[in-house]
Amino acid sequence: MSRSLLPLIGKLWLFAILFFLYAPILVMAAMSFNASPFYQLPFELSTRWYQQMAGNGQILSAALRSVGIAMVTTLVATALGTAASIGLFRYDFAGKKVLMVLLFPPIAIPWLITGTAMLIFFFAIGIGRGTPAVIIGHVALALPYVIVTVTARLSSFDITLEEAARSMGANSWTVLRRVTLPWIAPGVVAGGLFAFAVSFDQFVVSYFLSEPGDSTLPVLIYTAIRKGFTPEINAISTIIIAVSMLIMFLATRYSRFAGDR
Amino acid sequence: MSAVDVQNVTKRFGQTVALDDVSISFEDGGFFALLGPSGSGKTTLLRTIAGFHFAETGAIRIGDRNVENVPVEKRDIGMMFQNYALFPNMSVADNVGFGLRVRKVAAAEERRRIAEALELVQLGAMAERRPSQLSGGQRQRVALARAIVTNPKVLLLDEPLSALDKTLRVDMQIELKRIQREIGITTIFVTHDQEEALTLSDRIGILKDGRIVQVGPPREVYDKPVDAFTAGFLGDANWVPESWLSALRLPQPANGHSFAVRPEALSMAQARLDGMNAVAGRLTQRVFAGAMATCLIEVEGQKWKLIARDRDIPEITGDGAVWLNWRPEDTMAVRA
Q1: Residue B78 touches partner A, C-beta closer than 8 Å
Q2: How many CB atoms lie within 10 A of CB B294?
Q3: How do strand B267-269 and strand B302-309 relate by DSSP bridges?
Q4: Residue A255 has what pLDDT?
Q5: What ipTM is given for this predicted complex?
Q6: Which residues of A touch B146 (CB under 8 A)?
Q7: pLDDT computed for residue B78 by the predictor
Q8: Is the CB of residue B105 less than 8 Å from the CB of residue B113?
Q9: Is A52-255 a CATH 3.40.50.300 domain?
Q10: pTM strictly above 0.80
Q11: B131 touches chain A (CB under 8 A)
């Protein structure tokens, strides 16, 4: 293969990937502004579906619930995950490697299986279905993302800074607040944003763990599609995508993927 | 300011004995160097005094307080680290003021003491800079100001100058010595640089394999090393071959000792001089280095080294046969 051809193929490949990734989303976003309910062209700009969606109490309450759950999940997962990262960074203890390995299956195991397992388990121990169960599930799913992000940031942290602070008389709480947290803050913020996104976009686990009539936005969308598709779904989906992409954009800005300075 | 006293301290890391029954006293207001090769336990000793490690056995006193069970933050120490360890997210003034804020010193007092400390290290103008905007030497000074601003009982320095280049290092040595004199703080300084230890300290402790080998003023440790390790570690030592011993005047008692001479105590001549100790050898190499010169002489198959002012070394002609003379009192006796 000639030298000039290879980069060309690479570029085409990249464009193909981006095309199949984003074209459907763009079509959906476009259709959410099209007046016709049957995707008919010519395109006629209209905010009809957004208005209709805004009047739909079910969608709004599901959206509020989703945001609420995502916020609680973010707070809990970020606090736990940051604490875990610092603990894993600072201390060597028996079983540390095993623990670190155990943190990652939630990323690798299909959500369908995690969801089923959680449902069975939550019923067995009496938590059952409902918003608390959804939050616990989301925290469990979001935790590894927080730990990975914060740990990446911590890897560039110089532990002698903590020693220096202690030598000057700072107790562990002051060291954490004044020295360690300021350094890892970007990682913590990025981890929190990932946690929010994981929770807000979560369908499978939410579907299993939420009670009927108490669904989150993705679950509501799924049920709505099964009943019959309306362009309202395009409208709400476009909003979700915009929010998610904004969050991911912020998260990657803060974490810069590798946790460099 | 206080004396520091370490009694029978033992510290293990797993199977490794890092400190093996170490006892050593640091006088109030003294400048003390802990010197040893890497792995000798000098840093462990410093960090045990600081409180980053807890010793398994033994007692540590700072001033009149037993601190062996006191955590770092309550020991009232000042410490300087090898990599400076300045807080990157804080200005120079905030770095220096950290210990004061932790101690809840009033704001006006805090400002005054920060200014004072920065003045002492001649960085008054840099208060608002970030550490990243400073040169290596300046960071060093900030770290020093930060370590002394709280008036700690003892100043602990963990190879603080090893990251600096040679010229800057000498400047900082002088500076460090001046500041230490000025505030009179008990200072313990870890280094693997022999010259630095000899230049800076009033007393040197030499460590090897987790044990204290010798403690004393620099001159004494240099001139009267107790064993072959110290003799060779603090400078070069030329070992007198056994076959020559009977022809020399030796410090008594000579039994059970080996004898060595420092390279700078030797003078080279084509004859044996009266009243001097001397060995015969053959000059193999003469290395000119400006003011000084180094000669390598083979004595009974051993390599001897002579260091002297170049103009004081005579030209040797012929096959290089020479006599190396030295004053009998310059003969060092060390435990064999």
Answers
A1: yes
A2: 17
A3: unpaired
A4: 61
A5: 0.82
A6: 164, 168
A7: 93
A8: yes
A9: no
A10: no
A11: no
- B89 close contact with A: CB closer than 8 A: yes
Domains of chain B: 4-232 (3.40.50.300), 236-335 (2.40.50.100)
- Computed over every residue of chain A, the mean pLDDT equals 84
A-B Cβ pairs (cutoff 8 Å, strict): 58
Residue B102 to residue A158, Cβ atoms within 8 A? no
Give bridge partners of residue B202 from the DSSP assignment: none
CB B40 within 8 A of CB B208: yes
Q: Closest Cα partner for B22 from B38, B44, B39?
A: B44
Beta-carbon separation of B85 and A170 below 8 A: no
| B95-152 confidence digits (pLDDT tens) | 999 999 999 999 999 999 999 999 988 888 888 999 999 988 899 899 999 999 999 9
Of A161, A174, A182, the CB nearest to B102: A174
Q: Which of A58-67, B19-28, B161-170, B182-191 has the lowest mean pLDDT?
A: B161-170
Pairing of strands B211-216, B203-208: antiparallel
Closest by CA to A191, choosing from A115, A259, A97, A113, is: A259
A156/B contact by beta carbon, under 8 A: no
Annotate B267-286 with DSSP letters as a single string: EEESSPPTTSEEEEEEEEEE
Q: Give the mean pLDDT of chain B.
A: 89
Contact B99 A166 (CB under 8 A): no
For residue A260, the model assigns a pLDDT of: 43
Radius of gyration, alpha carbons of chain A = 22
A173 in reach of chain B (CB within 8 A):
no
C-beta of residue A154 within 8 angstroms of C-beta of residue A85: yes
Q: Determine the Cα–Cα distance for residues B99 and B142; give it in Å rounded to an integer.
A: 13
Tokens at A95, concatenated: 């079983």
Q: Is B210 left (phi over 0), alpha (psi -120 to 50) or beta?
A: left
- Is B83 in the A-facing interface, judged by CB distances under 8 Å? yes
Which residue among B71, B85, B89 places its CB closest to the CB of A164? B85
Q: Which alpha helices (DSSP H) does A159-258 contain, by range?
A: 159-167, 172-175, 181-200, 204-209, 217-227, 231-255
Q: What is the pLDDT of residues A215-230, one digit of tens each?
A: 888 888 888 888 777 7
Q: Is B73 on the interface with A (CB under 8 A)?
A: yes
Half-sphere exposure of A59 (CA within 13 A, CB side): 21
**Which position has the token pair 């999940």?**
A73
Nearest C-alpha of chain A: how many angstroms from B253? 48
